[in-house]
Batch of 3 targets.
Target 1
Amino acid sequence: MVDISRFKPKTVYVIYIASTPEKVWQALTSSEFTRKYFWERDVEIEPKLGGAFVLLRPDGRVNVRGKVVVYDPPRKLSVTWQVEWPEEFRRLPECLVTYELVQAGEAVRLTMTESHSWDVPEAILSGGRMGWPAILSSLKSLLEGGKPLAIAMEPPKDMIEAIKKLR
Amino acid sequence: MSKPKFVYVTYVRTTPEKLWAALTDPQTIRKYWFGITAESDFKPGSPWSLNFEDGRTADTGEILEAAAPRRLVIRWRNEFKQELKAEGYSRCTMEIETADYYPDRGGKGAKLTITHELEGEGTKFIEAVSAGWPKVLSNLKSLLETGDVAFQTRLQSHG
């Protein structure tokens, strides 16, 4: 088992979606949806504790690999998150990504929390802080209007520099 | 230690001009801000306020900068909760940029960044706006993209 108590929340993003928790859960866990809103990535997830979690790039390379730590549909999903591509990102210690879904009036509140187990520099956190709003804005557009809002984006230069300094 | 601050980014399928209009038009604001109305001509130096439907004042302040359709800065103080008012003035910066679509990079959406920072010390005001902005901006995005808000009712349990 993964000891999740060593991960501390560093980035939190909250978004309200006119949908149901079941539909948002499906959008987070099925590649039919992720390839539309998550830069064409396919998600593969074994629906159980300790199950494998993978994000695949359109060329078939593994982008992120991890393990399921909390699996409580349609309320809470936690996975460990080890970036495997681009290659230099493998130096990053794995983090923990948690999605929590709560019915909020006629909408669903989705909270994404990125937690880290080390004293992670701001420059490295800037990657997630840039990426998550784009990914989850696109997810919201997809579920509400049927069309994603895919935004072109590269990892911040400061982040790449900070990763190069890691051993 | 930097000052308490809340930053929120959202992407919207719209133009900077339409996003600017939605942030500065009282009739539109009322639709996505749970009935709250803004009173201001949104010109630098002008007074600004947010008011509840029943006429009570929610927040007051002044427009510090207004450069349509890119940048709006409001000096902002809460007026209806004593513990928030006691923390004094904050500064809310709204920045609008264009964002290229992926993967074709054809066409552009709009990126909205809200940075809300307290001028002095304190944590309660920033906590309150941290809970509030995601609701308001989620509703704004829904309204501009689909013509309808995500939810009508203010969620009391979260302020």
Target 2
Amino acid sequence: MSTIALERETRRPTEAAVEPGPIPMSRVVGVEFRKMFDTRSGFWLMTSIGITALLATSAVILFAPDSELTFETFATAIGFPMAVILPMIAILSVTSEWSQRSGLTTFTLVPHRGRVIWAKAICSVLIGVVSMFIALLVGALGNVVGTAITRTEAIWNLTVTDFALIVLANVLSLLIGFMLGVVIRNSAGAIVAYFVYSLLLPTVFGMLAAFQTWFRDLQPWVDFNYASTALFNATPTGEQWGQLGVSTLIWLVAPLAVGLRLVLRSEVK
Amino acid sequence: MITVDSLTKKYAGFVAVDHVTFTASPGRVTGFLGPNGAGKSTTMRVMVGLTPPTSGGTTVAGRRYAELPNPGRKVGVLLDASAQHAGRTGREILTIAQRTMGLPKERVAAMLDLVGLTGAEAERRVRHYSLGMRQRLGIATALIGDPDALILDEPANGLDPAGIRWMRDLLRSFADQGGTVLLSSHLLHEIEVIADDLVVIGNGRVVAQGTKSKLLKAAGTVVRSAAPGDLTRALMAAGITCTASGDGSVRTSAEPAEVGRVAHAAGIPLVELRSGDGAGLEEMFLELTAESQREAGSHREAVSQREAGSQREGAAA
């Protein structure tokens, strides 16, 4: 049976002259996108974006005082789970190739690892931005429903600029996760590192700034978390943009460059 | 065609692959044989660009692997059947390969059919697969791009006897249609039945290579008698170098006809007289295996046997 089937399936030597075209980048992105959804864990991770957005919205409607039922409150409440889930999505998209060892196939079918990593970055950012719009939509619904329940007037105090800045902040923290995935290439390790990065590091910097005067002026420039909070408050000043740029360079761009070098040169086992 | 040219891979402290050179030709099954840790997998990983070589290189269809525009369409690769996301279904894993290579959707079902995975099995997640099913899925992934060459690392692992037979027929017909097959194994008998050419590797070095028939021919004659001592003496008196094995058989490089004539002249009744198919290869292979630390016990045994043999040879000289 198998012999007959194979005769049909395998190549005829005369066809060898037909050269298959190179794999277009759009196809690599498409495949990587599919891979983010096609496992049970991946599926639920994606679904959790919607679920947590709904939970956060319900919590605001239930527990927030009527005066606080504004669009900004909803947006902030939804922003918290997002800030955790989005980096996880980015981390796992990279690390699963190593932790689950699927990279053996991935990097054999696409031997240019940079393209695969680049495709994963595109997918992660795309999912991050789309998630923020879903959050916006859920928040808007919450605002309408919440104020309808309390019979107060809906307050739409979130400008387009505010939203754009929040999206940028979330994409940046997603990219921090992505960077850690590339550098560490182990799911558990990268997730732990992300929490060290986002929870422990700010505390350390805060204490350093509190006790060491020389560090106080330096902190906005070297503390990424500190610099990125500017995006949540109001329109950042030119200096704040500069601080964000410098700290992003230190904590995101530089380690990502090192991580990419490692990924391109390392052995996939 | 697959070529490996003076490939060397060094790790801190040891050399995994040491100037390995060989060619796997179209239309032939090349068996890559060696004990565990000999450097087979490392060589194969270098071939497909997963491990950077220290020096030397490999080509597939005349090009470096990374230069192939769509490698899956040229070379089917199976390095480790278990290296898959455990949460994906078998069908999904094939679909990812099909999409990456830009193949028609129908290839997925065709490949499942070819490797004998049922529709229900294809919908199960790979974490629930047996090793044999994973191997079949891995073979399906390797074949889906309709490649000219196959690189398979221990593909028979975990397959039952019927599965091994199936694999053998599959690879045979692939090669018979002009495909190049390179498959590794640490089991001589497994590879002996399918390979046309053999490359034997030990401690990172190629220790023997050539066509199977040539390598097996070099094995000489095995002869057995109720009185191996008398037989050895008679052969040596006739100027035939021989060695007595521990199991009472005597091995020599002389032709069976000549051995029979000597035994007949000396009046020694023989129990067995045959050409030592594969015996020499097997011995060499066992020695290689024994040199790895894992089988320290059999190592001592092999050494003492070898020493006993050379003493007898010495006595004859």
Target 3
Amino acid sequence: MIETIRAALDKQDRLSAWAISERQLRSTQLYEVFGKRESIRAVDATTYDVDLHVPVHLDGRERMGSIRIEIAPGETGIDTRVRRAIESASVHGNRPFTLPGGGMTYPDFQSADPDIVTNPWQVIDDIHESLREEAAKAPDIRISSTEVFVKYIRQRLVNSRGLDVSQDYTDCLWEIVLFHGRKPEESEFWSIFSRPQWRQLNIGEKFGVFAQHARNALVAQTPRSGNCPVVLTGDALEVLYQYMIHHASASARFTGSSLFEPGKPVLPDEPLGDRFTMYSNSVIPGGTYSRRFDPDGLPGGRVRIIHDGVLERFWATRQYAEYLGIEPTGAFTNIELPPGTRSWEELLQSDDRVILVEQFSTFDPQPVAGNYLGEIRVGYEYRADGSVVPLRGGSVTGNVVSGLTNACFCREMEIFQGYYGPRGVRFEEAQVAGL
Amino acid sequence: MNDIPETIHRLRHWLKTAIARLETKFPYAQASFSEQEGLAIMSNRQETRVSEIPSRRGITLAVHTGQFWAEVGASEVTEASIDASVTRLLERIPVESGGTPIDPGRPWSGDFHSEYRIDPRQIPLRDKIERLAEIRQVLTGGSPRVAAAFVRYGERIVRKVYVNRVKDLYQELLHVSSVPVVIVSDGRSTKTMHGGNGYQAGFEKIEYSREALETLVRESESLLDAGTIEPGIYEVVGGPGLAGVIAHEAFGHGVEADMFLKQRAKAVDYLGKPVASPLVNMIDSPLTKGYPGSYFFDDEGMPATDTHIIENGVLRNVLTDLRSASELGVPRSANGRREAFTNKVYARMTNTYFAPGESTRDAMIASVDRGLYMPHGSNGMEDPKNWGIQVESPFALEIRGGKLTGKVFAPVVITGFVPDLLNSISMVGNDLHLEGLGICQKGHKEQVPVAIGGPHLKMTARVG
């Protein structure tokens, strides 16, 4: 199909550049409710995204008009589709940029799970069996429901500058709901997460942790209101630093929404705790966004963006790198932070109390402003006397900028989805709303 | 304007043939097709991006084995590929006995089209880009503290086919949306707000008053000077956006009947019982015309119906898909929705809102001695098992002695126990406004477009 599309594009002399991205998805899905199969699904989907670029003369300047179209597998009449798209692309124009060419060196990195590639139904059976074994060890826990999605994606990217690269990757998503106790005193724990390979789900270890959260939820309390140190861990860490990722992007710089300057501190005030360092790393084994190349075809790798609290470089796709006259890094992928200097236990020590949030109900920090807030779904209050009280309900509110101005990271490293870094960060002051 | 593509006619025939073959073995089969076609434009001062939206084009063939559902989804939509998928199901999936029989519903066939005045496909792209540039210029010129402004525009025609042994349905739904976004900065921090709305309508809905855009800039600027709220219990007047997030999270997700089968919904013990102030009425309505959750039939061929979830404070009805209604033995509502052919159907919300009452917004604010006015909602999360709730708002305005003081707090979040919050509603506004930019997730996945809304509400809430 790529050759058919390429042939249609080659006929168009108005095109200055093009790229075709083929994506083949095979998804295998299992849904169970109280151990009974509710549904099974098998999905095959192929898409062809085609980027078209044409030179345009606008207001006395040479510009580039661009449009993305999608062509269906087996679609006929591609010539007409492309001609119409070129007409659309010609009515607007942006600063020109070039596409990456062929001949680049790519990392020898494969994240695809061979088990998922060869026999996804067997993987689902293996996950199911692992779950059954773990559940048998915890008679006080009931599995309400599970959903397992096993995906295998093949991607090929070709463009008019001779680029022709391919990559395979896999993803295994696991959602589980556990109950503890009996009505009316019944508690629930819910989790959803994914890893590139099914064994990276660590079902045995995770089930034990989730079961304990379910037990604790039965006796959980609402925290008291006030300001106190807060330790954040788990999937919240993947999205917590969206502010840093946004302001360190060349596109934000180009469009005027970044506060950052290369060589300057990323925080307005001198930090009292650990200084912030951040990498974009697309070759972390087990990272959700690990890839050999980015959507433009630039090779993946590990790039330091912020070092000791100072912006080292903007991360930049090919287009925005050319606009700013800097080296492209490729799209931002997994976020990596280096280890901190304290132990996990030290993060949880305080003269009064520290609140550890393992899971928010939902957590969506604002990339532009850095504000974050969330209801505590699973939390613990560590008190000065050594006692630990499970928490549920109430909220934590703050801002990443002020949080990082007095923060410390632990030494222990962990992967949470697209995050690789310290298992926890402690903000010395955040606002807790509770009783 | 309401012509049905020839490809759709052919496809319906192929799907009917597929159903007939599948039901030679399985007790029940259904088939569906969906695709979307449209344009997305993003315009800022430096660049304009134009792209066709992903088609999400594909078919689903589903069989009930007697015990569970087995489905095949495929992006290839040809007679041969459908035939191959049918063969795959027939050869690999066993029939089992003893399960709940599936009711195919009443015989029904028809073609349906949503209403619009101006077909966006007839508007030249250049004109659309110019319209967005005009909006953007008002935002940019609104204040020297505007660091960046952009506008997103979307148009989307959704085509859906549903076929089972007694139904043969087609619907075509046209959606438009536009979202102006402003980013303000004082050099030390940046803040952002967005406006806009989404509709099931035509290009006639893509217009803004200068006043609305200037308000957006003013509200964004106010965030630069916003203070931190002292956590506590407050009297809160919430605007329709906030009311909508409460409706959606409180008793929207909480009455999705598939959650009943998983024993994850506390609501199962409260059907027919009071759960809210008697002033509260809450509705889920795919029949309400003009919003993203509007349709003629759901993804399992059920004709659109209104569901009165809460009536005068009493929990009355639940939202079902075919499976949950069959297994629970309750009447079906038209809430079986799937994100695309890549996804399963679940019981999902559509347009969910509180019904209006009799109070004015000004009367509500005047009645508050010490409290907050939250004109907008932004995000939220449900907890059907424990009836916890999280409702976020971009900012709150202080009320003292029945008047707005001009003091702003940001960001703010309401948390609490759902019945406590709903029982605290003491005034319900006489206005009604729906917001159609929402994307609803089941947990953290399975995205479907919805609208949320309601009138202004006065309540008591824990705010942090």
